[in-house]
Amino acid sequence: MERLQKVIANSGYCSRRKAEELISQGKVKVNDEIVTEMGLKVSNKDDIVVEGKHLTNSEKCYYLLYKPEKVISSTKDEHNRKTVVDIIGCSEKIYPIGRLDYDTTGILLLTNDGELTDILAHPRNNVPKTYVAKINTILTKEEVLKIKKGIVIDNRITKPDYFKVKKVNKDNNVSTVELVITEGRNHIVKNIFKELGYKVLKLKRVTYGFLTLDGLKKGEYRKLSIKEVKILYAYKNGQNKRDC
Q: What is the pTM of this model?
């Protein structure tokens, strides 16, 4: 017997947080009865229906994609633009963990494992992501120090775990910087420089936890190994102390 929201997440239908939302909205039935309260325990003998669809146990899938530009980090797009799910074409219902902007490239994980999605997405687990950004300025020492101390965005301090200026081009007045972020807020890297009055011209996520883009070109992907999945699970409650 397991909690209903966990069973829904483990089926690959959605993350556990999303499952809890659907339950509270009355969109989940167990044995033809609507369930709206958390904590109900179910077994594999129970008939579970989510948003009118009968739950089935799907094979767990885990992919690492080198996301190219002009691709949506979603399962579908109302404007019929290409999505990351279209690139992989998995027979199971998979979805991206988090997102990268339309014009951002780099590592993106896709799965149908709701429990792992919750682990990697939850702020308390501090999963590090490394970004390389090209910005339209040459930062002063004071600005670099300000970024390292933390930038206030939406009334919250955002402080990179690591920040370094990798390269400057004085002729074009641009810089390439590297930073490590454990936060999961949308547009976080772009907003750091926006607060300083600058624009990110190019952005790439080069690591996700211990995972890298080694061996992949833009638009290519690979399956994660069982060992890699186990290491990702170890980020739960800070168990994984690996550097990114």
A: 0.79
